[in-house]
Design goal:
The protein is an all-alpha fold and 452 residues long. 74% of the residues lie in helices and 1% in strands.
Length: 452
Amino acid sequence: MRIGYILAGLFFFINPNILVVDFLPDFIGVILLLYGLNHAFEIDERMAAARKSLYMLLFVALGRFLCTFLVPIIDPSEYTWFLVFAFCFGLSEAYLFCRSMYMLDSGLTYLSLRSDSREIYRSTGGTALGMTIIFTVVKNVFAIFPALTYLVTDYGEVTEAQTNWTFVMWMLMAINVLLVTVYGILWYIRMRRFWKPLKESKFLSRVEERYATEYLANRPLTVYRDLKRISLLLGLAFLFAVPVRMDGIDILPDIAAGVLMIFAARFLKRMYPGAAEKTVLLSSLYTVVATVEWGLMVWFSMTNFGPELIEQQVVFSDWMGYKVFREMDLFMVFAVYCVLAALKLGILGTVVISMRRALKRMIVEHTGSITEVGQSTEKTAKIRKTLNELLRAVLYFIVFAVLFSVLTTVLFLWFPILQTFDLFVWAAYAILMHSFTEKLLTSIDDRYYYDT
């Protein structure tokens, strides 16, 4: 277990939520927790159950994060949607986080008993599960209260002094920020008191010892489980890579796709260090370029296409297509954006192509019929041929998707219909990539007969 990553992950939960806005996104904290606890997850079923809850929490937290990008799009008269979002995400996150922490506490207790390391509770005073539940409930309930004011409006002059609901909303927000922040800091201090002493404990060394002997020594099992994670991460990454442009802004930021690909590349590198070395570097480069490109387009769109134009129902592509060729400074900014977008897409293509060697080795080493292992028989050859053809389709399709998306980026102001085709191309690619990884997983499963 990596205590530093666990503490960093828990830090992302201490801040209050302002409606749907989470300034320290919980999904990043979940990713850090999953990484920090990964070794313990592999050696105990109770810890594995906690991982499943954390994965569900990851999806919910990602949903909340994406709703943040609706703030500049939704009309103020429709802000009751934020009450719906805050309520749904708040309840889901509270349940899943409490469930994850309960299962984690249960798993740690069982591991400590099995490894005869009961000092984790004597030296730390316990995991403060009760405090965690109280903090989680307070954090999510108080995020909902300010949004309730959107349901109330004063009509006419019913009373002499009408309630200032805007003031009430800001007062509730202030209470939320103050209460949750103070309690969150106290909760985090308590969690540090539990996790910090484990860094040098016998418990941690015994967990790592069991991880090495029970998990790492079983090469086929590590490949199978790592591929499952890669499949999930790549599926989410290419979901975020689907371009959904609203008023020029991609509401599924490619930054998230880059971060997910970095984690996928790290798992691939662990399986095949030499074959996947470049994949990690290229994924990191893609994330940096995607961040700059997305930030530039947000600035470009919001400074030249304000709310007054939206209210007048002016079409973004018509307006900006007219202005770009008539104002040199806008033309230069758009040209830089096109160069960055083309560079980003080119790097994305090379990321996928760089996985080819590792995936081909995986097909040769870990797929085939269990009755034909080590033999060049017909059934094994057929399975590997199908997988290689699917891999070839994945590589050819990424080249086509990149070229088409570059064309769309350059021309979407004047041919907005290209955006629709671009969306479908990347959605089809995401499905193709998922089909390949699922087929590969099934083929490894058929050879080694592993249960998930």
